[in-house]
Write a sequence for this structure.
């Protein structure tokens, strides 16, 4: 092999991956299954541009920081970013091009998003997602619908041993409101609660001059996870109307899921308090045993679309399809791409008939490839064996002869 | 089965003392074995021995469900983990150290050079004060930075302060206390709740008991 003049020609950047045939084949099966599940549930698929203005993703309710986005510039244009998220473009479309459609809007998407998580985070920068958004309904039924759809998606893909954790960010927001804390204080508490760092939380709370019962409630949030009883124990803590409403909401969502027969996949975690300027109510996270990080994330974002001047409560989720592929391989193994069924061999003199015969086979749904001999004198049988092809059809003088092995 | 990532060295021994008090059989780990993976006889716990700074990575990816690491390592790595217990082992502090008399003197001191094993902690700490510094990453004997003129100050963990004092250096600014923490993978805490809870609750009781005794 010749040495390459530029070694970078052979490499791809950090954080992105190639998908070779067997992996790509399985990835497309997953996407196909999800597309079908979403479609059958009444969701319409849409597609949006790979890059858009930074203005779309960098607004007030942005869940991602500018530092996490791939930006590019050119004179005469505003700053553009490669989409870091699919929810914002969908909110934009819902509030503009589809604003006169009957509500609720049910939209789905399958595509990749691009995020930079910093040099220390070795996570992938290209993230393959499939997700849905349900816009125009505030009801707990809408939240239960999206959580149920996430559960059904994992089940129908053939996954087991997974769990959806449901939380309610308004419970935390209610406590913060009651305590009358400023943004800096509440952000530092939020961070510690999200890490379930009870000790540091206790130290921090000691320094704040807020009523003891509120302190005690904040201190208990990180441990408010487990089965549905958690909602009841939180009820005993809640005094403000906002907290009570939040808990009633999550209770309603849970009861609905129970009626759908899905409660065994559901757990509660009131200590999930991420992306608070984005989420406004129920949030959830899907986890599969022995996969280190969540494969699904979603929740309610009622104020996001109003940034476009249209009040539209909304809820939805995204699945990380590449992680699902890894989970499927670990749980039950993946099948390689099926080999070509027929290797078709014909003489240069019989191209017309050969081509017609091949097309006829293909029209019957048979996977056919044409034998293209190279200079190595490799026989059609050798080639078929190497590639795992079990049938050879040879066309000679108008006659088809078949060898199977 | 749950997997625990332990940092090789003194901290591992102290951690094993605690785990043994919980009735976990750690005898195999006590020897001089070069083995990196140990499983308890009943097969309930697997230990993996890793470099201290690698503990957060093993736990973030879920390769280990639980990890024991210093707060300094956790801050430096900055990975999303549940930090659930302070084991009160290996207590020390993170600090900026240097020559006290040379601080803020000199004409070029608007530009500070900092030698450290912790570039991320250093960057965040000085950024928090609105200062931009030049960070020189070193892998050991950081005190040499100011002594040789490689850097103006250092950011490092300080235990007794003896090494600093013997080299004429002193603590200029405190960044924060450091001790060993128990961290848990965010998915494992949920999917292996009972097994993990048993260990954490047991350790917490032990630690609280010790705190009350002293």
């Amino acid at each position: 092999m010749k040495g390459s003049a530029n070694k970078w020609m052979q490499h791809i950047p950090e954080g992105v991956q190639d998908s070779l045939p067997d992996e790509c084949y399985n990835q497309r099966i997953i996407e196909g299954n999800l597309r079908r599940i979403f479609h059958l549930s009444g969701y319409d698929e849409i597609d949006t541009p790979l890059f858009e203005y930074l203005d779309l993703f960098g607004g007030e309710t942005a869940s991602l920081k500018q530092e996490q986005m791939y930006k590019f510039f050119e004179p005469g244009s505003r700053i553009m970013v490669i989409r870091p998220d699919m929810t914002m473009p969908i909110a934009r479309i819902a509030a503009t091009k589809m604003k006169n459609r009957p509500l609720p809007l049910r939209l789905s998407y399958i595509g990749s998003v691009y995020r930079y998580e910093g040099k220390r985070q070795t996570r992938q920068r290209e993230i393959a997602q499939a997700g849905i958004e349900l816009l125009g309904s505030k009801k707990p039924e809408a939240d239960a619908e999206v959580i149920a759809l996430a559960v059904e998606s994992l089940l129908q893909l053939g996954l087991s041993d997974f769990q959806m954790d449901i939380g309610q960010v308004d419970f935390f927001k209610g406590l913060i409101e009651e305590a009358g804390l400023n943004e800096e204080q509440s952000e530092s508490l939020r961070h510690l609660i999200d890490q379930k760092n009870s000790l540091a939380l206790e130290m921090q709370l000691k320094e704040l001059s807020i009523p003891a019962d509120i302190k005690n409630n904040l201190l208990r949030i990180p441990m408010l996870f487990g089965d549905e009883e958690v909602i009841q124990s939180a009820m005993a803590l809640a005094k403000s109307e906002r907290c009570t409403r939040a808990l009633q909401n999550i209770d309603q969502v849970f009861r609905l899921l129970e009626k759908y027969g899905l409660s065994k996949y559901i757990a509660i975690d009131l200590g999930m308090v991420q992306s608070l300027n984005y989420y406004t109510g129920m949030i959830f996270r899907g986890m599969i045993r022995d996969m280190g990080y969540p494969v699904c994330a979603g929740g309610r974002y009622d104020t996001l679309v109003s940034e476009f001047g249209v009040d539209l409560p909304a809820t939805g989720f995204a699945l990380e399809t590449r992680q699902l592929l890894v989970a499927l391989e670990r749980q039950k193994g993946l099948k390689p791409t099926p080999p070509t069924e027929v290797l078709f061999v014909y003489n240069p003199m019989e191209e017309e008939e050969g081509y017609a015969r091949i097309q006829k086979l293909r029209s019957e749904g048979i996977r056919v490839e044409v034998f293209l001999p190279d200079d190595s004198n490799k026989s059609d049988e050798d080639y078929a064996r190497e590639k795992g092809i079990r049938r050879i059809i040879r066309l000679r003088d108008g006659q088809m002869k078949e060898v199977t092995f | 089965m749950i997997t625990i990532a332990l940092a090789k060295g003194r901290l591992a021994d102290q951690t094993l003392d605690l785990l043994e008090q919980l009735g976990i059989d750690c005898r195999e780990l006590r020897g001089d074995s070069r083995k990196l993976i140990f499983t308890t006889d009943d097969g309930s716990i697997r230990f993996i021995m890793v470099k201290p700074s690698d503990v957060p990575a093993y736990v973030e990816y879920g390769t280990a469900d639980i990890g024991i690491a210093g707060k300094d390592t956790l801050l430096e790595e900055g990975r999303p983990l549940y930090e659930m217990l302070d084991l009160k082992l290996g207590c020390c502090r993170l600090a900026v150290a240097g020559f006290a008399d040379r601080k803020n003197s000199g004409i070029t001191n608007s530009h500070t050079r900092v030698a450290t094993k912790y570039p991320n902690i250093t960057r965040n700490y000085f950024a928090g004060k609105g200062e931009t510094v030049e960070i020189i990453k070193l892998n050991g004997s950081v005190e040499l930075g100011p002594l040789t003129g490689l850097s103006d100050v250092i950011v490092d963990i300080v235990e007794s302060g003896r090494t600093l004092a013997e080299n004429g250096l002193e603590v200029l600014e405190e960044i924060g206390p450091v001790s060993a923490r128990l961290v848990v993978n965010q998915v494992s805490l949920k999917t292996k709740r009972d097994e993990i809870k048993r260990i954490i609750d047991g350790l917490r009781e032990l630690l609280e008991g010790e705190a009350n005794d002293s």
